[in-house]
Structure prediction request, 51 residues.
Amino acid sequence: MYIADGQIYVFDPSGRETGMIETPERPSTISVVGNTLFITGRNGLYATKVK
Prediction:
């Protein structure tokens, strides 16, 4: 699970935080398509590969 709250926080199925993805600006929306996480911010669109 990915939660946008200043940065992107990553959680496993049990609810334990397993990581954080730093972003160049505060994310407003996120979407996973295949193995890519798309992040929109006020000034741009960003993408990163996820497992």
